[in-house]
Write a structure and sequence with these properties.
The protein has 358 residues and is mainly beta. Helix content is 8%, strand content 64%. The protein is built from two helices and 22 strands. The strands form two sheets. The protein has a twelve-stranded antiparallel beta barrel. Strands 1, 2, 3, 4, 5, 6, 7, 8, 9 and 10 form a ten-stranded antiparallel beta sheet that branches. A hairpin with a 7-residue loop joins strand 19 and strand 20.
Amino acid sequence: MNLVRFVLAVGLLSVVASAVHADTLVLKNGDHLTGTVVSSDGKELTFKTDFADEIKVKWPSIAEVKSEKPLYVVMPDKKTVSGDVTTEGGNLVVHTRDSGALPVPYANVTTIRSAEAQAAYEASLHPGILEGWKGGASIGFALARGNSETTNLTTGFTADRKTLHDEITLYFTSLYSSNDLPGGGTTANSIVAGARYDRNLTKRIFAFGSADYTHNELQGLNLRSIYSGGLGYHLVSTDRTTLDVLGGLNYTRETYSGATRGEGTSTERNLAGVTTGETFMHKFGSTTVVTEQFYFYPDLTNTGEYRFALDAASVTKINKWLGLQLSISDRYVSNPPIVGTKSNDVIFSTGINFAFTH
């Protein structure tokens, strides 16, 4: 019996202690909530309760806030102060250790963070090179045996690491297709890969460097390497939509094998050119993301000739890590040097996407 009383007493003390140390939120309609202040973006306050998990409350609906643990509040002058929080009239009052009580009008509250959110924010300012990556890999495969003997394999990979100061983008797409009947052979063998690094110079202007690589067996292209550098502009930058435009110069190196339009069975070209382009992203709802990038490369070494590169994809989430992907890539050269080859090849693929976040 004594043991039962002891357990009940400990449980009761735990409940009382948790209630004492809980933050309090009072709404103008008279509702009282207890829990934990998580964060605020200046428009809404995120409050975590034991019975309803996290809820978002608009500031005009709030009559009183009281925190039992220090919160981090961004002041109108962008300075961050920390301390217990209460309300007084139309002000949020931060009780700091060094400066005493600092009142901030509700309308001027831009950000509130809990200790955990503040630690995560500070870590995001200078993340390690292996942190902050998002992306996915996709694969599609088709096999036919019987009257037809064909094999088709498509693969893809994208990865993006975006911080407050810079962004790294990686991409890879491949297509292999063969007719396995006697005399058939390879009907497609293309690989496209590349990387781009952006560094913000101002809120809108950024410097960039990029590399794009292409292999196309049926075009006789062993490897095309395009190295570009220049400046860009963040034309649209929101959580749902981004649009960047850019321009600069590039160095292109190409090696081909096969009967050329001149003499010989191989050619190597080193070219200087201009790089112009744009990159686009838009989120449709909470499940579908569309990305697209286009680069145009006018040739300065052989004026009148040009190349372009187009990559576009959409991923629709099935769950957190699995999705359906559609992608298209096109690489075009205005004057292919190998006799009998076309100017461009288009890779269209659909498959399962496996997403990752680190």
